[in-house]
Amino acid sequence: xxxxxxxxxxxxxxxxxxxxxxxxxxxxxxxxxxxxxxxxxxxxxxxxxxxxxxxxxxxxxxxxxxxxxxxxxxxxxxxxxxxxxxxxxxxxxxxxxxxxxxxxxxxxxxxxxxxxxxxxxxxxxxxxxxxxxxxxxxxxxxxxxxxxxxxxxxxxxxxxxxxxxxxxxxxxxxxxxxxxxxxxxxxxxxxxxxxxxxxxxxxxxxxxxxxxxxxxxxxxxxxxxxxxxxxxxxxxxxxxxxxxxxxxxxxxxxxxxxxxxxxxxxxxxxxxxxxxxxxxxxxxxxxxxxxxxxxxxxxxxxxxxxxxxxxxxxxxxxxxxxxxxxxxxxxxxxxxxxxxxx
Amino acid sequence: xxxxxxxxxxxxxxxxxxxxxxxxxxxxxxxxxxxxxxxxxxxxxxxxxxxxxxxxxxxxxxxxxxxxxxxxxxxxxxxxxxxxxxxxxxxxxxxxxxxxxxxxxxxxxxxxxx
Lengths: 342, 114
Ligand SMILES: Cc1cc2nc3c(=O)[nH]c(=O)nc-3n(C[C@H](O)[C@H](O)[C@H](O)COP(=O)(O)OP(=O)(O)OC[C@H]3O[C@@H](n4cnc5c(N)ncnc54)[C@H](O)[C@@H]3O)c2cc1C
Ligand code: SF4
Ligand code: SF4
Ligand code: SF4
Hints:
The complex is a heterodimer of chains A (about 350) and B (about 110).
Chain A: E1 4-8, H1 12-23, E2 27-31, E3 46-47, E4 52-53, H2 54-67, E5 71-73, E6 78-83, E7 88-92, E8 97-100, E9 102-105, E10 109-111, E11 128-130, H3 131-140, E12 153-160, H4 176-190, E13 195-200, H5 210-219, E14 224-227, E15 232-235, E16 241-247, E17 252-258, E18 260-265, E19 267-269, H6 271-280, E20 307-309, H7 319-339
Helix pairs in contact in A: 1-2, 1-7, 3-4, 4-5
Chain B: H1 22-30, H2 42-46, H3 48-52, H4 57-66, H5 69-76, H6 95-107, H7 109-112
Helix pairs in contact in B: 1-6, 4-5
One iron/sulfur cluster (SF4) binds near residues 37, 40 and 61 of chain B.
């Protein structure tokens, strides 16, 4: 009899896992809480490092799922999770019952809620937006202030909600530095007369072709980089944003008026992922993401035999890392289904 | 004879080997969060004093750690101990206490051999 695997979450990780398992002859169901699959990918315009349109990756993932006959349950979450001697029993919010030989958790991440960093004024001042809001503007093909005029000076603040004890996130979200660089280039492309300033604590360009993109931002697009953590923003009478920062390399405080501020919001464990952790009985780490049993050689394994992780539900990851992690999860599941180990 | 205006000036290097870093050690011991500073400048950006004097708490931290005690001594009293910087620090450094401890240490400089 063919084995059945249930994947929870239909983002990049979930769809890749489902497609690969299906190719290997395993029956797969994907449970996705939203109406559409794709997860965060649906919000992005062009992807670092090579600035491909995100729809190309989406097409690839959709192809995987359509061509291999996957059972897609959208608008669905799980309510009850049980285990008998050989199977997992799942009841969905619609009352549907599923039996599975193995489970893959691919519930992804949530974006840090930038309004929690009140000092930057997200949701308080006009024209303070997040990296995601900016991606949406790129998609629409127009970058504009709330009064519909075009911004001339744009500041990008790194590490919003990451590396910050004040919000309880010690970790680095790992891909917001390169997102800042990519977005700075795109702003300059859209608005050739604009000036863009990135305010960073460290430039973490630890991915293939990231440093090259950073060089391009400096050399070709004249993006400015200022090393210092912005302590606060305020709105001026002429509706500009006044920021305070120490230019740590010059060793002097610096103030600057900007038309628009873009916050590089970090990645957090998703709230729905946390619910799943509760329902299924999965362990989470100090960073609140799902905790793998081994950070070196078992990053797909959970504390429950037969339940595996794929993608950014375990740590911040970019798309190539998510795809690799998902493929690795497939190998783990196939091993498990063959010999029941793990 | 022509004068070329050359003078012999003191070196600008931080002489790490001979600098006295006991002040840093004293603060590390009393306030372990001092080790966590990543020199981001959040504290000095928000500091009222920094905007009007040459004072930077971030810089003070690194000067203490390098044992540049004369410069530390010159700047220490500019801090008003208002504590605003503590609200900003992303690393949870107990910023204000570092200034307090440095002042204490200088007052008892014989005891701490600074
Ligand atoms: C601002 C920003 C820009 C980025 N740009 C790039 C880029 O240019 N290039 C790049 O390589 N990477 C980029 N990334 C990273 C990329 O978004 C992630 O690598 C990718 O989205 C991770 O995929 P995932 O499937 O693990 O998670 P997600 O995309 O979060 O997908 C998780 C899915 O699970 C679903 N789900 C969650 N909980 C449940 C539940 N309980 N029940 C059912 N379904 C559930 C969600 O609805 C979602 O569809 C960017 C990230 C950010 C924050
Ligand atoms: S990747 Fe860069 S912006 Fe993002 S948390 Fe890490 S250092 Fe900060
Ligand atoms: S305590 Fe001192 S360093 Fe901190 S903000 Fe006040 S004056 Fe500035
Ligand atoms: S805000 Fe904290 S981490 Fe940043 S320079 Fe000041 S003490 Fe160091």
